[in-house]
Amino acid sequence: MVVVSCLCAEWCDTCVQYRPGFLELAKKFPNADFRWVDIEDQAEEVGDLEVDNFPTIRVTREQGGNEQVLFHGTQLPIHAHLERLLEELLK
Fold this sequence. Notes:
Number of helices: 3
Strand order of the largest sheet: 2-1-3-4
Shape: globular
């Protein structure tokens, strides 16, 4: 199972504008679980993960109870960039 998480904040205007397109991308990648994670409201989920800027994207693959990080970093809030990244990672 691949999980695509967007680590953002509700107070961030860029995040608010980015969210609909991020969730729309889930339709193009039905084998991935897309998750919107608010770094403040869901702080326990974020834990020690680094979030230097928004949006921070984290793509993981779970296999046998282990989580493999495929990507973790800030991206420009351009959906086509995330789409291209996912196309490469999920080949």
